[in-house]
Design brief:
Mean pLDDT: 76
Number of helices: 22
Strand order of the largest sheet: 17-16-15-18-19
Number of domains: 6
Shape: elongated
Largest sheet: 5 strands, mixed
CATH class of the largest domain: Alpha Beta
Strand content: 15-25%
Length: 625
Amino acid sequence: MAESSFRLPSLLNVTDGNVTENFKKWKREFEVYMTATGSDKKDAKEIRDKDVNKVQQSTARPKKNTVRNKTSYQPQPQSQPCDYCGKLHAPKKEECPAWGAFVGEVEKDLGDLCEAKLYVEEDAKPVVLPARKIPIAIQGQVKQELDKLVERGILVPVKEPTEWVNQMAVVRKSSGCLRICLDPQPLNKVLERQQYRLTTFDKVVPNLNQAKLFTKMEVKEAFWHVRLDEESNDIIVVGCGETEQSAKSDNDRKLKSLAKRCSEQNIILNEEKTKFGKEVIFHGHRITDKGVLPDENKVKAIQNMPKPKNVTEVRQICELVQYMSKFLPDLASTMEPIHQLTRKDAKWEWTNECDESLEKVKEQITSAPVLADTRSVQDGVIFKGEKIVIPKCLRKEMLQRLHKAHLGYDSMDRRARGTIFWSGMRAELKEFTKKCVQCEDRKPPPQQEKLKQHSDGLGPWDKVGSDLFQIQNRLYLVVVDYHSSFIEVDFLTAATSQQVTDKMKKHFARFGIPRELITDGGPQYMSTEFCNFTQKWGIKHHITSPHHSASNGKAESAVKAIKTLIIKCHESRTDPMEAILEQRNTPRVDTKRSPAEMMMNRKLRTMATQQQPLNQNQQQLRNPA
């Protein structure tokens, strides 16, 4: 197009319509003119200043005899304290001097991080896709949006043949405007990608110590900043301090730093979507100065979930609930009836048990606790959330305590995860278990295919298994709960039914009488005395096949675990009772809860957790109203 066809924009209209929109349009036309004519920045500044002066002169206060347009008079809004700077001025961010200083540093028309080049695989075959049909009702809007993108230099019309042609997708925004997107599915399959690890939400939360003020901003037109996608365009600035004033100062300092960085990298922020205050919604979480809560919209979505009609809908429920897992204790166990429907070859049947699981999740999410993952000090002990931060001089002792039960790295990691913390702890746990002579000498052989086990009963101590084992001519009795895997072990002075019965009575007096008892039918369990005991106490006694001891798998596993534990403690000269305590307090792989928690609905106090703070219920019991 000839240069002569480009002209300077007309004088800025400040009397009709929206002045802000008029200015944006005038500024856009001006920049198009400067780009097309090849004028440099100095020329642009001189011309722009000249026109702005004209505008300022034309909008100066008129003389008394001047007749004004009635629509130009607007009542001045009353001043009120600003949420951002705290000073009195009109209730608009544009009137805030602090906010204006920030926006002035980053305000531009279009962000530009850098130029990106796409690399495709050498043997990639170009794909030319047909154009999608645009509904007649929006064809005019689509044309206007495309013209605007071309005018701004975001899109460049291509009239010559090209190897790759991707389809256009049109999405309507919540504001009602249209978003023009590219759908490059064939291209994505052959792109060679650079790997970059994004920071996760869980890594951000620990940095919110003493956070009292939050500013949430969004990158404007993030797709056109080249390197950012729509999921990566939120920026959170956190003001931290012991007082609100110090937090405000910290927030201002960080905002200035952000403005400078945005200016250097040509990043444009969306002023309209900026929010600041004492809480902010970020990645489905409500972050406040008190801690982290679930987003109310996510909570409502879970509460309003209808019963699923097929496996696809079940998976959608599982994904939504899993996102809130940190607020839902024992989620794996609660959702197990629903998870079973997603497994291979599972029969589709939405049962009453599934209904109960879904209702329990809905009930739990309405009373979700506030998660605090910041560091604090209580009685001279540093906490990270509810975890004790272990100083370097005590870490070796902690490793030894965690390994009392000789359960291996995975179990130690699960045990430590909710109680103690130090940087690099998991790596040290793994190295410590490798150096344990007893564990290395007694590594179990590869497991054979597991037999189908009994059901776990209706709840804790509803169904138990029992067996006997011997170590160095010493006889032991094991009783294990099918639901929680909680194990009781007793030394027997004689291999008699009377001894077995006496020990079991003590356990049943402590935890209650189980409905079912599974044994392998050994002589101690088959005597008249034992049969009279089970009948009198109302216990159904089931006997497994004597030639297939593995069919009593729960008791067999308990025997193996306790037998190995006692032998390792004997060899390392450590206390087996302390080891059993740690074993009971170690979370299981499947439920993520320890046998003690599943059995008694509480964590047991151990050597490693003596300094942990009391929870809310414990504090109420200690300090009743």
